[in-house]
Amino acid sequence: MPTLPESVREIRLAALPDGLPKPEHFTIERTPPPVPGDGDVLVRNRYFHVFPALRTLLGGGVPGAPFPPLRPGDALFGAAIGEVVSAPPDTGLQPGDLVRHFLGWREYAAVPADQCAPVDDALPDPVVHLGSAAIAYTALTRDAPVRRGDTVFVTGGAGGVGSMAGQIARLLGAGRVVGSTGSPAKAQRLVAELGYDAAVVRGAGPDAEPIAEQLAKAAPDGIDVLVDNVGGEQLQAAIGAARTGARFAIVGALAGQMAPGLSGTTGPVEIDTFQLIVKRIGMRGFAGLDDAQGRPSWAERVGGWLRSGELTFPHVRVAGIERAPQALHEVIDGRHLGTVVVEL
Question: Where is the Enoyl reductase (ER) domain (predicted)?
Answer without folding.
Answer: 19-342
